[in-house]
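User: What would this chain look like folded?
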Amino acid sequence: MHISKAQIKFIRSLQHKKFRDESGFFVAEGRKSIEELKKGFELVLEVNSSNATEEEISRMSGLKTPQGEIAVFKKAASGEPVAGGDLTVVLDGIQDPGNLGTIIRTCDWFGVKQIVCSPDTADCYNPKVVQATMGALTRVRVVYTDLPVWLGQQDVPVYGTLLDGKNMYETVKGSSVKGIIVMGNEGNGISQAVRPYITHPLYIPSYPAGAETSESLNVAIATAVVLAEFRRPG
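Assistant: Here's the prediction, encoded as structure tokens.
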């Protein structure tokens, strides 16, 4: 059955958080991403050349270069963060959808099953985030909560990247490490409200020590560097 004008309008509306929240659905594009998401999310509608024209797909797409296939999925039930697991990543005010998507994909690679986000962190169902995760959303649970309240209830080490932290390579002892890793906002770092809960401040040293270098690392890159160290056998 050919796609209707109402369906086109609805799919297009899912580019906006307001409509994703109201409807409980999100949109994904591209064959690989769609096939991966089918493994963990309920498929509601799939659009491709069999039921839509190239022009119609372009109108629904949020990409500069549409990939020819669009799908609508039902969002996962929200709920509270769960305790347990060896590592949990906490995101405090991550704004850029590309960064969030890359962090979710990185967590998937390093076996982190849960990401706990502050309410002002980007929406994990933003199409740009979904695109960047490449299907990792099916394996990594992303939840949003009041971070100071939640962190105050935890009884595990809480690591956080801070400029005045201790050298990560001298502090983290490889894959035996358990706990929570907090990554902060792209421009301001970890918020003042969350900093008191950091029990183990970490710093990723530049190389060589003392040389003039960039002011900071991109937060998605920093997350990858930290997780690689936490997962290093030792």
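The chain is about 30% helix and 20% strand. If you want, I can go into more detail on any region.
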